[in-house]
Amino acid sequence: MIEVRGLKKNFKNFEALKGIDFIVAKGEVLGLLGENGAGKTTTLRILATMLKPDGGTVKLNGKNVLDSANEIRKEIGILFGGESGIYDRLTARENIVYYGELNDMTKDEIDDRIKHLVKVFNMEEYIDRRAGKFSKGMKQKVAIARSIVHNPSIMLFDEPTSGLDVGGARIIQQFIETCKAEGKTVIFSSHSMAEVEKLCDRVAVIHKGKIVESGYLKEIKEKYDKNMEDLFLELVGEGNEL
Amino acid sequence: MNYKHIAIVLKKELKDIFRDKRTWLAGVLIPVMVFPLMFYLMGMGRSKMENNLKQDIPIAIEAQGEESQLISYIKNAEGLKVMKVEDAYESLKAGEIKTIIHLEEGFEEKIKGQIPANVKLIYDEVSSESTMATATVQNVIMGYTEGVRLGRLAELGIDPQKLQPTIINREAYVPEGEESKGGGEALMLLTFLLPFLLMLYPVIGGMPAAIDLGAGEKERLSLEPLLSTGADRLSILVGKYLTILLASVIGVITSLAGLVVSAKMNPDMMPMELSISPISILILVGVSMLIAMMLSGVMLAISVFAKSYKEAGTYLSPITIVLMVPAYLTMFMDLRTISTNLFFIPILNAVLLMKEVLVDIINPVHIAITFSMSFALVVASLLFTKYMFNKESVIFRS
């Protein structure tokens, strides 16, 4: 479970987050929607304990990010979009093992988990090859496997399909569906309304550091009686400006 | 800080950087090859010049009037070959002759009249062979002059020894129980080169790793996933720091190996008969380790600040130039009269101390100041690196 109350974050004189609140229950997928610079990545970075909040409380599985950062990181997996950030000179296996070891898994646990992940993502052919010459799709699979090697109960996705082709995006979408099926708590930031409609239980629209709307997807759509794209543009004011 | 996580990061980073060709090139291949290659090529050039000078040196003589006895002396002298050329100056410029001997008008008359006669040796200042050959020609003429001098003294019935009241011998003082350092060029070369290497090669060896482990992580977008693992930030930082330190030390060791190989291959160019005492070796290793530790921290901090490989390279490259300054500054400093105040200047003090211990000057005050200052700098560089790695605006600088 993720609980965010009155979260604030400043960068020098810029208020990136102005006191945001949301809750994601276990097994739920929350879509975090917003324009570039709205505060989505800052929120995810605070949840992942990479940034410290300047105000409010953030709890993951009941643990506060300020007091229990190390424990929280062992319970989360994070996946970014675009470039996958894997090490080209290491093999796919070495990339995954590295993250398993840093998450305090034993050798046997890592071996068992890799066997499972290799099957799930069809990585048999290239698991022991260096990642430098992998295609984007192959790299994305390794990045996913690396982010869940320790079987985290919370997954954070920051625009995970950004820059990927249709095949690559499909892999990610299927993976998010799997997370949901496995009962993981998921936050997913995206620009793609189609993805949000397909994958999310709830949405939170963030605009200029504030949550301007949040709730179950179905309820929000009923409330505004609009498709997600029109709804989003209305909430962030872009429609009026156009 | 978690030692297990440090070891995991260190193991991964070492595996990663040693699979990178740049590490092998900058950390191993260049340091090992640069000195043997440089000394080999310099040796080849010197051998060629020496061989040319071993053959008879082609010269031309410009003289007017009565043929001088000096000309006959030169024609019969070993090692010189008088050439007949149309334009001596063009021949000198073309390298066909190495020196022109110009005798002033009335040269022979002046000799006979016991009046000093002018001999001008004209050489090509651009040609090192011409410069060296002229010294040989001068020696031949000095031989003739000495013969004439002795002849005149004999005519006057004066014993030449009576005109030489002193005989000067130079001898280096070597304290009892110590060995001669050999002195001269070899000592100067070694006391310049060794501190220079120990300063420069931690940077050359460690720089590719520093760039890859800081700015490289940012550029390939692997830093954020790494920071979201169970490892705390300090353990990740220490693992990376130790990797760079190890690469720096490897750079130093390989460059020293290259120096030793050069000396063995080319003992004329690089005499290594200098013996260094165990205490001096211990101090050298200690100082160079402190320098490597400090520079590794500084390089990692700068690399973490940079957004990309390119930016990190731009920031880090000037460090090599900065480190060359103290090596050159101290080149002509007198080791016996160095002011203790200079040992309070960071980096410069390390170079001075290395120079001192290479000639077995063990000054406890200098050692204490240098080690304290260097240790303080290491601590400062590590704190600075830790500060940079924890600073949100640095880590997420884009």
TrEMBL record, chain A:
Protein name per its UniProtKB record: Sodium transport system ATP-binding protein
Q: Which residues form the ABC transporter domain?
A: 2-233
Q: Which GO terms describe its molecular function?
A: ATP binding
Quote the Pfam families the UniProt record gives.
Answer: ABC_tran
Keywords assigned by UniProt, alphabetized: ATP-binding, Nucleotide-binding, Transport
**UniProt record similarity statement:** Belongs to the ABC transporter superfamily.
Fetch the SMART domains from UniProt. AAA
Residues of the signal peptide: none
- SUPFAM superfamilies, from UniProt? P-loop containing nucleoside triphosphate hydrolases (SSF52540)
Gene3D superfamilies per UniProt? P-loop containing nucleotide triphosphate hydrolases (3.40.50.300)
Which domain of life does the UniProt lineage start with? Answer: Bacteria
Organism the protein comes from: Alkaliphilus hydrothermalis
InterPro entries documented for this protein: AAA+_ATPase (IPR003593), ABC_transporter-like_ATP-bd (IPR003439), ABC_transporter-like_CS (IPR017871), ABC_transporter_ATP-binding (IPR050763), P-loop_NTPase (IPR027417)
Query: Which residues lie in coiled coils?
Result: none
From TrEMBL, chain B:
For this protein, the parts annotated as crossing the membrane are 24-42, 186-204, 241-261, 281-306, 312-329, 341-359, 365-389
**One Pfam family from the record:** ABC2_membrane_3
Alphabetically sorted, this entry's keywords are:
Membrane, Transmembrane, Transmembrane helix
State the organism's lineage.
Bacteria, Bacillati, Bacillota, Clostridia, Peptostreptococcales
Q: Which residues form the ABC-2 type transporter transmembrane domain?
A: 32-382
The annotated topology with respect to the bilayer is: Multi-pass membrane protein
Q: From the Swiss-Prot or TrEMBL record, state where the protein is found.
A: Membrane
- Species source reads Alkaliphilus hydrothermalis
Question: What is this protein identified as?
Answer: Sodium transport system permease protein
